[in-house]
Inverse folding.
């Protein structure tokens, strides 16, 4: 599987939580091996939220996201809001996900 670093509307590579965001792309120059080992996303969420009562909202926002040592891999279509927002796809650049407000460094 080939991967590509996600980009915003200015063709700048995007990051989330200090890590690059990747998605599947036929001619991508990265592979899953570049991402390293999978990490515990729930542990990251609990360490990153201001208040643990908001952890579930952040978890839902990251439904399609998997955390790795060297980045985030986004695949799926259950909740694309954050990916579309960060990538500035369509009108999503203006629609900041509410769950970002619950993170310490968003």
């Amino acid at each position: 599987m080939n991967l590509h670093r996600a980009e915003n509307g200015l063709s700048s590579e995007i990051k989330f939580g200090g890590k690059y965001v990747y998605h599947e792309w036929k001619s991508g120059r990265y592979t899953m091996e570049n991402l390293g080992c999978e990490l515990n996303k729930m542990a990251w969420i609990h360490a990153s939220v201001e208040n643990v009562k908001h952890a579930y909202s952040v978890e839902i926002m990251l439904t399609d996201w998997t955390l790795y040592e060297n980045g985030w891999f986004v695949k799926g279509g259950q909740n694309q809001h954050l990916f579309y927002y960060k990538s500035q796809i369509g009108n999503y650049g203006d629609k900041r996900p509410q769950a970002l407000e619950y993170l310490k460094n968003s």
Remarks:
- The helical segments are 32-35, 41-48, 55-61, 81-87.
